Amino acid sequence: MKHALLVDDFSYYLPESLIAQEPAPERAASRLLVGSRVGDDPPHHAAFRDLPEWLRAGDVLVVNRTRVVPARLRARRDKDGLEFEVFFVRAHGEREFDAWARPMRKLKVGDVLHVGEATICYQHRENERNARFALETGATTVDELLEKTGHVPLPPYIQRADAHSDRDRYQTVFARERGSVAAPTAGLHFDDPLVDAIKQCGVDVRELVLHVGPGTFQPLPHSIVEDNRLASEVFEIDADTLRAVADAKGDGRRVIAVGTTTTRVLETAAQRGWLQTPFEDRRGETDLFIYPGFEFHAIDGLITNFHLPRSSLFMLVCAFVRTERALALYNEAVARQYRFYSYGDAMLIVP
What we know:
Blueprint: E1 31-36, E2 44-47, E3 60-64, E4 66-68, E5 72-77, E6 83-92, E7 96-102, E8 112-115, E9 118-125, E10 131-137, H1 142-149, H2 166-169, E11 177-180, H3 192-200, E12 204-210, E13 233-237, H4 239-251, E14 255-258, H5 260-271, E15 282-286, E16 301-305, H6 312-321, H7 323-335, E17 346-350
Helix pairs in contact: 6-7
């Protein structure tokens, strides 16, 4: 009988002092732990700006160009001044949006909330988690409301208020298309000179989009891994990127994903047969949950930050390198005092 995977099997010890509260002074100054996907050789320790040394001409490096929106809104109910946090999830047209609201149980249909100089109205409960709001006054679009009044949605383990500098540093240099409520953190270490150096090495840099939803902050609720489900997230990937990945796979060249978000889109594309002709622009949603036992068909290498224990992101890393190997690499990172989580350091896993 097959042993069920337990969420607690994906635990490791992390001193709180190693949880990064601020980004590195310079993006590419982050540290980089380089480990092999197979075997148990000791990892190498480098700076992220050294990444070109570990890449090869002909590699396809795929990044996520999603842009984080200032999703956290502070609201006050019109009739009694009760304060709410409204956390944007996704827009519906220009004047309606879904959000998490706290305390949700206090909201009544028709309640008007003040958000800065704007007002929004609670329409209805959209589903188990989401509330639907409509913009009433003070802004012409949801985008304008967020830009005027929203705060950078730093993860809960960053125990400080967002600063003006986070508007830049919690975005990647690739960020263009608005829609995420969390950064694809593996991309935070790249700066423009490093991207240029990578391209000059003959690496083909490609892009896709996956808009990260607020579920990335939520712990898995069920103790057995397979009993959990991930919330669907919106993605798009163009025909040229699909062709570049397919050609690399056919030629025996490496496809290296920058981040777990990119990995999930590429493996979704492989599962859906999109790495075969005819190549077309694709968009949709994915709830792909990758944990040990998953067979990878798109990526050969992975650049990723160090993730929370018992999280779906750490499970993806364990699926890619084996759980025992992933735990050994993480324990090495702890021993060497790498910085962890969103503003922390990075790891490169290659064949």
